[in-house]
Amino acid sequence: MVLHSHLPWLLNHGRWPVGEEWLYQSWAHCYQPVFGVLRRLADDGFTDQLSLGITPVLAAQLDDPAATSAMHEWLASWQLRAMEAAMDDDADRRASGHREFRAAAAALADFETHWRHGGSPQIRSLLATGVVELLGGPLAHPFQPLLDDRLRRLSLREGLADARLRWGSTPTGIWAPECAYTPGMEREYAAAGVGHFMVDGPTLHGDTALGRPVAGGDVVAFGRDLTVSYRVWSPKAGYPGHAAYRDFHTYDHETGFKPYRVTGRNVPGDAKKPYDPSLVDPVLDRHVDDFVDSIRARLIGESERIGRPALVVAAFDTELYGHWWHEGPVFLERLLRRLPEAGVDVGTLATARRDGFVGAPVELGDSSWGSGKDWRVWEGPQVHHLVQLNTEVTATALDSIDKRLDGAAARDTTADQILRETLMTVQSDWPFMVSKDTAAGYAQDRAYKHAHATREICAAADAGRDEQAARLARGWRRADGAFGALDARRLPTRDGSVR
Predict the structure, then answer these.
(1) Which residues are catalytic, by number?
(2) Are residues 398 and 483 in the same domain?
(3) What percent of the chain has pLDDT over 90?
(4) pTM > 0.85
(5) What is the separation of C-alpha 226 from the centre of its chain, rounded to a whole number of angstroms?
(6) How far apart are CA 252 and CA 146, in angstroms?
(7) Are residues 418 and 290 part of one domain?
(8) Do 228 and 288 belong to one domain?
(9) Which residues are within 8 A (CB) of 255 and not within 5 positions of it... i.e. 6 or more apart?
(10) Angle between the 384-405 and 149-167 helix axes, to the nearest 10 degrees?
(11) Which pLDDT does position 21 carry in this prediction?
C-alpha cells in the first residue's frame, strides 16, 4: 500500500477555510492517528507495511516550531469547544460534545507525548522500525513537466537533501507531485539516486501487475491499481460514502464540529441524521473484508493473466485516513492486520522492486493522475494565465540569479530569496485549486504574491540597488520563512553544470 501526504504551504497566511486550519485538522485527525497505527503495528513486529510519501512542504510544516506551538493551542481550543458543546441544551449537540472532548483529550495526550519536537523524530523512529518506506519528492511541490529544466533538477535534488537532513536517510523512491511525468524525467531520477516512482494506472495502460523499468533504464515506475483503489475512494463512490460514516462536509456551525452521519448520497445537509458510533463497527468490518477479498481476487486474476506472481498497488492521499474519512485509520489498521491472515503478503514499493516484481521495460508518455490523466488541470484554458505567469517569472528569476552569481564564490542571500519565491510561485497547488475551484481566490493570490516578490527583488538587484534588493529579500523571507537552507549556488548553470 502507498500513502501520499501533502498540504500546500499555509503557515502565516490566515485562518479557515484556507489557512492553518487545514494543517491542524489534518495533523490531529490524520497524521496523529495514522502514525499511531504504524507505531502499534511496529510494536507488534510488523514490517514493510506501506510506502509513505511526505513532501518537503509538509515535512517543513510539521517541524516548524511556530506550527507545533500553535498546534498545541489548537488542540486545547478543540477541547474547550467540546466542553461548551457538552453543556448545550440540545441532546445531539451534547452527545457530540462528549465525543469531541474525549477525542481532543486523546489527541492532546498523543501530541504531548510524541509530537512536541515536530514530525521528524516521529518519522525517524518509524524508519528505524522498518514498518514503512519513506518516499520523498521535489522541493516546493512543483508540477515537474512544466517546470524549467534547471529548476526541476534543483528541486528534485534539494527535496531529497531536505529529506536526508530531517530523517537521516535519503529516499530511493518518490511520489512525484500529481504523479506527473514527461519522457526524460527518469534520467533525472536516476542521476539523483531515485530507483522507483509512482504513476497513475492509465499511464501504464491499466497494466499495473508489475513495476516497469522506464525507457530501457533501471528506474522503475509503479502504477496505481485503480480497480482496487477505487473500491475505497473513487470520483463517484467508495467506502467513505456509506450512510453510517461521519459526514465530512456538513458542519454544526455553532460548534464547528461534524456531528452528522452521511445518511444518504442525496440527502441535504439539514436532513442529515446525528452520527452514531455504534453503527460504525460492523460496517467497517464488512468493508475491510470486502477490500481483502478484492485484493485477493485481483492478485489471483493478474497472476494467472501474466503467468507469474503479480502485485497490487493500492495508493491514496494519506489525508483520506482520518481527515476526509473519519473512520479511515481504524479501517487501515484492521486491513493491514487481516491481509496476512488472508494469505496476502504486504510490502513497500522498495520491497517489490527488491523481490523482483518488475516486468518488461516500457515507454511512458506525458501523464498525471489529474482529470483526464493528462495535464489539463495544470495547463488548461482556465489556468493559462498562471502558466504564462510561471514562464515569465522563472525567466526573470533565473536571469537575475545568473547575473548575481556569475563568478561569485560567497553565498548570496538575495539570490537565495529570489529562488525561494520563484519555487513558491510555481507550486502545482495553485493551478490545481483554480481548476477545481477550491479556494481559487486564495491560490491565485498566493501565486501572484510570490511572483510580485520575485519581480520586486529582481528589479532592484538588476538595477544595481543591492541594499534595496537585500532589504526586500529579508522582508519577504520574514513573511514566509520557507526552505531556509536553500542556497542559490546549487542551481545548475545554463550549460547543466553545478557551481
Answers:
(1) 178, 317
(2) yes
(3) 88
(4) yes
(5) 19
(6) 42
(7) no
(8) yes
(9) 81, 84, 85, 93, 96, 97, 100
(10) 80
(11) 83
